[in-house]
Specification:
Keywords: Repeat, Signal. InterPro entries: Glyco_hydro_25 (IPR002053), SLH_dom (IPR001119). This is S-layer homology domain-containing protein. The chain is of the alpha/beta class and 557 residues long. 31% of the residues lie in helices and 11% in strands. Strand 7, helix 7 and strand 8 form a beta-alpha-beta unit. It is elongated, with a radius of gyration of 29 Å. 47% of the residues are buried.
Length: 557
């Protein structure tokens, strides 16, 4: 009898524990084991340098281990429009092909904006429980401290930073084509101080929203915080989802996962499909292409831009299907190297996983937005002024002499230079007045000259009262105008450089002495290779681009 009572008591306690487990809040159960899924398989090679913007995540991917007996209570989201930013959506033929792939996989063809409540309410399937990310940079869900394809060792103190307006790699060399520096982040970075991140010169972020199929416990637990902070502070951002998809059904679910989390958000950078997990290595190139196409077409149909993230080796050997040549898909290349060796066109280079940024404890992936599309045939990527021309072109401050001609050696006029400053100030509206006899109404430079005169940046010629719009501007005149402009913008202009090292220092006019010493002191002017300042020589367009980029980057950052 005693044994029977004990058995009944144990049975009763077991039932109570089961009921308690079922009623346990989702947030409590979800914390029990959040490690990203993936099975053990041979790790893949990561690309060399293409995205020196450290696309390799420095922390373990999270994948909740939830037992089949656990029920995940999740609210069903209402249908809503996803984002205002339109992107090029593939044509009817492509959509038909995608629909066929989904039909063949018996995937529900309904609206992506409708939650699949049944899937949201059920526990994670047994085959996905306890999975952990394994790839060239993860092992059993843990970020590798020394990834297979890590950055080359370097003692250069300013690696991945701006020096005189140009981003430098870990060997102390300029990164050709790098126009903006960003980071990619996930829960692994913990609570980020985004105000410090922005102040440290970070221009964009790519944020992990989640991983795998559309289950709430596979959301990145820091997603909402990270995206809301970027929106609050005006930091442009994109999104990525770590994929485990081995078929188009899973790809569809992963797209729904991303879209659920994107509701109410409007990223200015693409939504990236992170293809790296070892579970997908042995899939055929054709199937990888089908999986990517289902994901990207589904995301694009809701108005978002899309892209693919992979390392250099994957781009070269795994992602060889023709679908990856779709010009509407952005390419994000990871290669921890001093340069990115990807031969095709790409938009972002992840260059290292060992970046240091204020506001983030520990390491973080560093990325660079790359520009390979200058329309000018007379600006070679190896030119000393390439980065400056690219910067001014991307910023909209300088245009070419023609659609395919920049004219690097052409001298720049006073009207052209004043127009550059006007654009840098946001082109404020100003009414016409006959301030200068030689500045009529209706010219491309009219508003720029009147604005610059009004704020005290330019004064014109005292002896004639003219502005001289077509006169070429000299280097010392440019320095003087920039000096005044810096004061107008509220920058500290007290720094002074030493002109004694320049052989022609005596040629600097009295009116330009302070301005030239300031420009040398802050690094806007560094002199010519022959040790001269050439203060009275006309400035050419290439030198102007370099000086203006240095002004923008040195004083702002």
């Amino acid at each position: 009898m005693m044994n029977k009572k004990r058995r009944l008591t144990a049975l009763f306690l077991g039932i109570c524990m089961s009921v308690a487990s079922i009623s346990m809040p989702v947030s409590v159960r979800a914390e029990e084991g959040q490690m990203q899924d993936s099975t053990d398989s041979s790790s893949t090679i990561k690309d060399t340098d293409q995205q020196e913007t450290e696309m390799q995540m420095d922390e373990e991917q999270v994948d909740s281990k939830v037992g089949t007996e656990e029920v995940q209570n999740q609210e069903q989201s209402n249908n809503s429009e996803l984002g205002d930013e339109s992107s090029e959506v593939q044509g009817d033929d492509n959509n038909t092909e995608t629909d066929q792939l989904i039909d063949n996989a018996n995937v529900d063809d309904g609206s992506i904006l409708e939650e699949n409540q049944a899937q949201q309410d059920e526990a994670v399937p047994p085959e996905q429980q306890g999975q952990k990310a394994n790839s060239w940079r993860y092992r059993d869900g843990e970020l590798l401290t020394t990834p297979e394809y890590r950055s080359r060792a370097s003692s250069y103190p300013n690696a991945w930073e701006k020096v005189n307006g140009v981003y430098m790699n870990s060997a102390g060399q300029p990164i050709k084509g790098a126009v903006k520096k960003g980071i990619d982040v996930s829960y692994a970075q913990g609570v980020i101080n985004w105000e410090k991140v922005k102040a440290d010169g970070i221009s964009f972020a790519i944020i992990q929203c989640g991983f795998g199929d559309d289950y709430k416990n596979q959301d990145d637990k820091m997603w909402e915080y990270n995206v809301s902070e970027c929106e609050r502070l005006g930091i442009p951002y994109g999104v990525y989802l770590y994929s485990y998809a081995t078929n188009v059904t899973m790809a569809k679910s992963e797209a729904k996962h991303a879209l659920r989390l994107l509701r109410g958000h409007n990223p200015s950078y693409p939504v990236y499909f992170d293809m790296e997990d070892d579970t997908t290595v042995n899939l055929s190139s054709e199937l990888k292409g089908q999986i990517a196409k289902v994901f990207c077409d589904t995301i694009m149909a809701s108005g978002y831009k899309v892209g693919i993230y992979a390392n250099l080796d994957w781009w070269s050997t795994q992602l060889t299907s023709s679908v990856f040549s779709n010009p509407s898909w952005s390419k994000w290349v990871a290669q921890y190297n001093t340069t990115c060796d990807y031969a095709g066109k790409y938009d972002i280079w992840q260059c290292t996983s060992a970046g240091k940024v204020d506001g983030i404890d520990g390491n973080v992936d560093v990325n660079f937005l790359m520009s390979h599309d200058l329309p000018y045939k007379d600006v070679n990527v190896d030119s000393w002024y390439y980065d400056a021309v690219s910067y001014m072109y991307e910023s909209g401050y300088m245009t070419g002499l023609a659609s395919d001609k920049f004219g690097p050696s052409a001298q720049i006029s006073r009207a052209q230079f004043t127009t550059i400053l006007y654009r840098m100030s946001g082109s404020p509206q100003i009414g016409y007045s006959a301030t200068f006899p030689d500045v009529p109404n209706g010219q491309f430079y009219t508003s720029a000259v009147l604005w610059a005169n009004k704020v005290g940046v330019i004064t014109g010629y005292k002896n004639t009262g003219n502005f001289g719009p077509s006169d070429f501007i000299t280097r010392e005149q440019m320095a003087t105008i920039l000096y005044r402009y810096a004061k107008y913008c509220g920058y500290d202009t007290s720094q002074r450089g030493d002109l004694s090292k320049y052989s022609d220092r005596g040629k600097v006019a009295p009116f330009a002495q302070d301005a030239m010493r300031w420009a040398v002191g802050v690094g806007i002017i560094s002199g010519n290779a022959n040790g001269t300042l050439a203060p009275r020589n006309p400035a050419d367009r290439a030198a102007t681009a370099v000086m203006m980029m240095r002004y923008e980057t040195v004083l702002k950052y």
